[in-house]
Specification:
The chain is an alpha+beta fold. It contains two helices and six strands; from the N terminus they run αβββαβββ. The longest helix has 10 residues.
Length: 116
């Protein structure tokens, strides 16, 4: 018996609006589309995790999602080119991550990070 994965389900009245952000900006693949539910996925595997936070660190707001990437600067450039709202600008944090927060099309704060 064990948890195999954890999936975040973000509520919206228009799931199709997700493609411009989750596919085009983040590069995830649309792996399931029921119309009312769309699931996007990357090709990596990771342990199932749930973060519980009172703040986002360094005084930042708590993000709804944290997405680890291989080149945070490239994703930052892509987000800027797509005119995404940057909520917390790119920074090297003292606990060993480089990250930035942006807002997805549904108003959720998303933490894009890489460990260094």
């Amino acid at each position: 018996m064990g948890v195999k994965r954890i999936v975040a389900n973000l509520q919206t009245s228009d799931p199709e609006k997700a493609s411009a952000f989750y596919q085009d900006v983040l590069g995830l693949d649309l792996v399931m589309d029921h119309g009312w539910l769309r699931t996007y996925a990357g090709d990596g595997e990771a342990r199932a995790q749930v973060g519980i936070a009172s703040e986002g660190g360094s005084g930042a707001p708590v993000p709804l999602l944290s997405i680890e990437v291989d080149d945070v600067d490239a994703y930052y450039a892509r987000a800027k080119a797509a005119q995404c709202e940057i909520v917390y600008d790119i920074v090297d944090e003292p606990w060993g991550v480089r990250r930035f927060f942006l807002r997805d099309p549904f108003g959720n704060i998303v933490n894009i990070l890489m460990h260094h």
